[in-house]
Amino acid sequence: MKSKVAREKSQARQPYESRKRPNKRLQATTAAAQLASTSKPLSDASRVPIPPSDHLASTRPRPLRETLLEQIYVNFPGIQPRTDWEIIKLGTSRFEGTPAEIYAWLDESYAYERSYNEDVDACVQRLLGTPVALTGRKPGPDDKLVYTRPIPDSKYSIRLFPGAHDAAEYCMDFVETATGQPVNSPFEYELWSVPNPDTPWLTAVMTMQLRTIESAHRLKPEDIRPGTEKFVLRDGQTCMLIRPGKRPVRFTVPVRPLPQSGLPEEDVDVFDFPKIAVV
């Protein structure tokens, strides 16, 4: 015969009855229409996706809203975000389906998030106004500081284009030499960060193999959209492209002047010695 304590412990170990447990996902799906109507609607200007500008590689900080709308235009053609929250969701997510399936996914996702965060709309509105400088957006035809060099014994070129200036980030991808169209890894190769030949004793610790952003995020090659693959390098970094049976190619990323930090200038005298001493 069980004691009162034993009976209480036994009851505590019994599984929960599903009818007594709230199903948040079911509740979210059921309430999707009602909750979606409470989100702050977009203005007419924001309802139309903004096409990619001619300055996608510009590194000046811009409101996050602008950047995400451009991403939505590319990744979700024909889909118009109905709320600020949908701008965040579409601009930072991957989902494939018909327009009806995409909107149903948005409604369910929003309702589920509202089920545990009632302040989501206010948070999203503040976030979309935040200035950001992103790295990795492919350049447009009129962008500055974009450099292309043809790879010997190949129909492809290396292209360097600026990333976030404050972080001293430069990007690299491959393009077709004849057309300038970006392509994903078009041949077998390795890209290495190597010591600068002018000062190898200072940069020996920089030797390492580099990976694309997509590879670092463990995306499979077949899951990468054509022409979107890229490396993130740093201003002044020296790299070497190695191909089987081909002569290696070495290059150094350009260095941009540091952006104005707004801090007081250093109280110091600067001597302008030559960077390369030649007899």
Structural features, described:
By secondary structure, the chain is of the alpha+beta class. 28% of the residues lie in helices and 16% in strands. The protein has ten helices and eleven strands. The strands form three sheets. Strands 3, 4, 5, 6 and 9 form a five-stranded antiparallel β-sheet that branches. Helix 2 (24-30) packs across helix 7 and helix 5 crosses helix 6 (84-91). The termini are far apart. The relative contact order is 0.11.
How do the strands and helices of this protein lay out in sequence?
Blueprint: H1 4-13, H2 24-30, H3 32-36, H4 44-47, E1 62-63, H5 64-75, H6 84-91, H7 99-114, H8 120-128, E2 131-132, E3 147-150, E4 156-162, E5 169-176, E6 182-183, E7 190-193, H9 200-203, E8 208-210, H10 213-216, E9 231-234, E10 238-242, E11 249-252
Antiparallel strand pairs: 1-2, 3-4, 4-5, 5-6, 5-9, 7-8, 7-10, 10-11
Helix pairs in contact: 2-7, 5-6
Strand content: 15-25%
Question: With helices defined by DSSP (H or I, 4 residues minimum), what is the helix count?
Answer: 10
Q: What is the number of E strands?
A: 11
How does the overall form come out from the CA principal axes?
globular
Secondary structure: helix percent: 25-40%
Low-pLDDT segments, ≥5 res: 1-58
Mean pLDDT: 79
Q: What is the alpha-carbon Rg in Å?
A: 26 Å
Order of helices and strands: HHHHEHHHHEEEEEEHEHEEE
> N-to-C terminal Cα separation, in Å?
101 Å
Structural class: alpha+beta
Let me know the largest β-sheet. 5 strands, antiparallel
Labels describing this entry:
279 residues; alpha+beta; 5-stranded antiparallel β-sheet; 4-stranded antiparallel β-sheet; 10 helices; 11 strands; globular; disordered N terminus
